[in-house]
């Protein structure tokens, strides 16, 4: 089975050794694997459809029929792609110690699963990618502990999930909270407090302006200045509306340092944007609900991860060449 010309009968030249009398045939391994009727070029096309477009096996079969006039079962394609059960191993060499971590929800065969992903903040390479049935503290700690074992440990940037601080600190990392998520969270809290405190439109606008001043503190460039300003908020109760002070007391003061670690060490990512981008490239939203098995979605994610990491390495090499 050839990619361009379809099913073709091929005659293979055989030879006989004049010394020992044994017979052998022309080596075709560069064209087709031993005991296979499908050329390597055709098999690589299935990898291309799976990796670059995250097509399902059935859609790959349809594409083969439509574009090449070749009928292939989805089981045959799966056998081509998923030979290595230990495929989920990443070879990034030495990690920087600065990471971004997040969890993405996937629906597999009607049930929600949780994709735990760790990305190196300096190289942008994906360090680990695992799917679990839960997203509790035990699972998150297990994933981070295993994926950072025997690696450098400096800092991890995450969103504002309340499970993360204790786990990350316990593992020996500085914990940077995503500034982008922090600002979004403050806006959301203000909307909640609008109903809780029965704020009028004038009061809500006043609170909105006060919150804007606080959010601007996250954009300061000097660590000492930012630390002083954020730390002092808790002592300025009379300067803020009760709703805003409630936000300061619960959401900012207890963990203000986690918002500004990036000012002390420029290698620490201040947002989780890099991993959000990686999620979109390796598992677009349009594909998040089409899979039937965890194994199937993991293998597809892994192949996209390999492409992602390879592109990051090329980008790094191009930067160094300049």
Structural class category: alpha/beta
Strand order of the largest sheet: 5-4-3-6-7
- Helix and strand element order: EEHHHEEEHEHEHHHHHHH
Biggest sheet features: 5 strands, mixed
Query: Would you report the number of β strands?
Result: 7
What does this structure look like?
The chain is α/β, with parallel strands linked by helices and 322 residues long. Helix content is 47%, strand content 13%. The chain has a five-stranded mixed sheet with strand order 5-4-3-6-7, sandwiched between helices. A two-stranded antiparallel sheet has the order 1-2. β3 and β4 form a beta hairpin. α1 packs across α12 and α6 runs antiparallel to α7. The longest helix is centred in the last third of the chain and has 28 residues. It is elongated.
Supply database-style keywords.
5-stranded mixed beta sheet, 322 residues, two-stranded antiparallel sheet
Question: Brief description of this entry?
Answer:
This protein has helices spanning 40-53, 57-68, 74-81, 137-147, 164-170, 179-196, 201-217, 223-232, 242-252, 261-264, 273-282, 294-321, and strands at 14-16, 23-25, 98-108, 111-120, 126-132, 155-158, 174-177. With 322 residues, the protein is an alpha/beta fold.
Topology:
Layout: E1 14-16, E2 23-25, H1 40-53, H2 57-68, H3 74-81, E3 98-108, E4 111-120, E5 126-132, H4 137-147, E6 155-158, H5 164-170, E7 174-177, H6 179-196, H7 201-217, H8 223-232, H9 242-252, H10 261-264, H11 273-282, H12 294-321
Parallel strand pairs: 3-6, 6-7
Antiparallel strand pairs: 1-2, 3-4, 4-5
Helix pairs in contact: 1-12, 2-3, 6-7, 6-9
